[in-house]
Amino acid sequence: MTALAGGDLSLPAGIQWSDLSFISAGVLIIAVVTSAIGILVLRQLAARSIGLMLTVVVGVSVITAIAGIGVITVRMLGTGAQRDEILDLMAIAGLAGLVVALFLGGRLTKASRAISSAVQGVNENGVYVAPPLTLPMELRELSDELATTHERLAQARTRERALEASRRELVAWVSHDLRTPLAGLRAMAEALEDQVVIDPREVSQYHSQIRREVDRLTLMIDDLFELSRIHAGALRLSRRMVGLEDLTAEVVASAEPVARHKGVRLTGAAVRGMPVFVDSAEMGRALRNLVTNAIRHTPPDGGVDVLAEVQGGMACVSVSDACGGIPPGDLPRVFDVAFRGESARTPGPQEGAGLGLSIARGIVEAHSGQIAVRNAGPGCQFLIRLPLARPGVPALNRTVPRRHAGAAHPADPDQPQAITAR
User: Fold this and answer.
1) What's the CA gap between 338 and 325, in Å, rounded?
2) For the chain, what is the radius of gyration of the CA atoms?
3) In angstroms, rounded to a whole number, what is the distance separating the alpha carbons of residues 296 and 317?
4) Which of 19-33, 145-159, 305-319, 383-397 has the least mean pLDDT?
5) Burial readout 270-306 (b: 16 or more C-beta within 10 A, e: otherwise)
6) Mean pLDDT, to the nearest integer, of 343-371?
7) 247, 281 Cβ separation under 8 angstroms
8) Label partner for 371 (CA 20 to 30 A): which of 25, 334, 364, 418?
9) Reduced to 3 states, what is the DSSP secondary structure of residue 26?
């Protein structure tokens, strides 16, 4: 070999070129044959245990090595004793390799069966408990992924159950809310048809009441349609750049007659320069739902305040009322379908089916925004946060005064300006 390393192509004493050619050809043939046999065997065992397949792989390697060494010893060693000794050593080495392969295959088989048993043992809550074994890195990663997947599935099942419960509650509430006005409409129609009511003044009152009930049913059906679109992910948004202060002013102006009729003081204030990329019709509906809900639950001589400003780099609209607050246990359920915060199922004449807040949440979340509620002051405060369409609008970190609609105000763009009804 020294001669070969030095660039001399002459072989060491006792070794001929014909020997190398014989050994190379023999080892190549043995490797090809054993590899082909091993591949065929592995194909037949494709659905069997991984430990068995690993044993076949090690067996093919050992047989190939032993056969190659056998070719070398037969060609280059002269005595049979020397050949037998080397072959015995190779057989021992091959046996050791097979033992290690069987041990490793058994470990892998045990680990895979443990993971399979853990998956089969998942309870109704979808909790996956990892097997108490020291798993190889790949199987440990697989077990971690299974745990994460089962956790997500459990959360999805929880959401599905909550949604199903919400749907059942919605059906119960809406069926009751529809049945009550329909019964009244039928009674009034029969009274008019049978001429039980003939006085022109009473007939006019019946007609007015029928119209109000029909309007109320129409609004309820519109809310149901909107909510079904939100839940189905079919809410189509036509977004454009609008000023949140202008949108807030329109909502306050539209709600002013309702507040005045009930005797509720409605105030609004907003800073200028809050561009948002929203569907103005849908977002306006969400804001109106919040303001209308606040007016409905605020007693006469109470106040509802609407404030639009920039907080933490986001456009924010808060609606504060004087409803007396919401029980802490009910706060997480405020945006649930058909939640009214009371046990009575029959709503008042001006109340809806309890869908307004659910619709508002769906619309806000469809705009990548956030909506929340908390108890504050004499009532509660609803807060909508929306991404600004243009960055760099300065945030207001100081407390700003709220002004009544129509009050005089300076022209400072950083100060909330009073919103006046148009």
Assistant:
1) 19
2) 40
3) 19
4) 383-397
5) bbbbbebbbbbebbbbbbbbbbbbbbbbbeeebbbbb
6) 71
7) no
8) 418
9) helix
Per-residue model confidence as pLDDT tens digits over 236-287 = 888 899 998 899 999 999 899 889 988 999 998 888 888 999 998 899 999 9
State the Cα–Cα distance between residues 297 and 283, nearest whole angstrom.
22
275-278 and 240-243 beta bridge pairing: antiparallel
Give CA–CA dist 99/93, Å, rounded. 10
Question: 306 is written with which tokens?
Answer: 């609407």
| Nearest CA among 278, 269, 361 for reference residue 309 | 269
- How far from chain centre, in Å, is Cα 395? 30
**169-197 average pLDDT score:** 80
366: enclosing H helix or E strand? helix 356-366
**Residue the block writes with tokens 């079919």:** 234
272 vs 76: CA distance, rounded Å: 97
Place of tokens 């109000």: 212
Say how far apart CA 187 and CA 133 lie, in whole Å: 73
Q: 3-class DSSP state for residue 63?
A: helix
List pLDDT tens digits, range 103-149: 766 777 777 777 777 777 776 656 777 777 777 677 777 777 887 88
